[in-house]
Amino acid sequence: MKTSEVIYQGHIRTEAVHLLSQNRILTDGPLDNHGKGEAFSPTDLLATSLACCMLSIMGIVGERDGIAVEGTRASVTKIMAANPRRVSEIIVEISFPSNKYSAKQKQILENDAITCPVAKSLHPDIKQDIRFNYL
């Protein structure tokens, strides 16, 4: 089954349609690469997907193991390199709500986050700097 359809709209902009739900995502080229910077760039989505996957996996584990992770946030920084132009590093800073997590719960959440499907799908040349903050 196909996942999505992407339509080039001109001016370095695309519209991606998730076929099952019909949800839409616009992308725009970044300001430093001929775009208007008015939406996520494709490389922004790549970096952001890592954080989304990590939070989703922690949500699954939290539901399974009774660990409250609602309200957990991730801040994403994408670092680009040149020659060839590519994502060279993704920094994800995950901040948990002020729950009292045990050492074992922290270990479970962190291990599952760093082994999420997106993390395991990224090329090993892309440095993944993952930081966990417990309030």
CATH class of the largest domain: Alpha Beta
The CATH superfamily name of the largest domain is K homology (KH) domain
CATH topology category name of the largest domain: GMP Synthetase, Chain A, domain 3
Using the CA coordinates, give the radius of gyration. 17 Å
What general outline do the C-alpha atoms trace?
globular
Q: What share of residues are in beta strands?
A: 25-35%
Helix % is 25-40%
SS elements, strand count: 6
Tell me the series of helices and strands, N- to C-terminal.
EEEHEEHHE
Average of the residue pLDDT scores? 96
CATH architecture of the largest domain: 2-Layer Sandwich
Q: How many strands, what sense, and barrel or not for the largest sheet?
A: 3 strands, antiparallel
Tally of separate domains: 2
The unreliable regions are none
Write a concise keyword list for the protein shown above.
alpha+beta; GMP Synthetase, Chain A, domain 3; 2 domains; three-stranded antiparallel beta sheet; three-stranded mixed beta sheet; 6 strands; 30% helix
Q: Could you give a short description of this structure?
A:
The chain is 30% helix and 34% strand.
Provide structural commentary:
By secondary structure, the chain is α+β, with helices and mostly antiparallel strands. It folds into 2 domains: 4-33, no CATH class; 42-134, GMP Synthetase, Chain A, domain 3 (2-Layer Sandwich). It is 30% helix and 34% strand. It contains 3 helices and 6 strands. It has helices at 42-65, 103-114, 117-121, and strands at 4-10, 13-18, 24-28, 73-81, 86-96, 127-134. The strands form 2 sheets. It has a 3-stranded antiparallel β-sheet, with no helix packed on it. Strands 4-5-6 form a 3-stranded mixed β-sheet, covered by helices on one side.
